[in-house]
Amino acid sequence: xxxxxxxxxxxxxxxxFAIIFREMFNESNPEHSxxxxxxxxxxxxxxxxxxxxxxxxxxxDNGAPHIxxxxxxxxxxxxxTFLNLFIAVLVDNFQLxxxxxxxxxSQKVQRVKHxxxxxxxxx
Length: 123
Prior knowledge:
Elements: H1 2-25, H2 36-47, H3 52-61, H4 67-122
């Protein structure tokens, strides 16, 4: 459940940053912020750190050198905060599931041993 909540926050911030990005940099980089869906795709691309420098250089060359502050804030918030939180929750859930499997397996072993002793006592 917590991973779903973190993913919802990740996509909420992605949408908020997409709206801001589109309004601020539509004139300087219409290729990456032409419509809201293209902007969301561009921000997802930045989230994976793919071609973020190309996006920066295109906007900088077209008169928006302040995009570096926006990109830095976006990468810090989305990548280093929400994505790492999501991965931490996934790892925690995997560890919990492994513990449950080990506990279940040890309980089965104890039941089998108990049944073996009962059978030996009756013989």
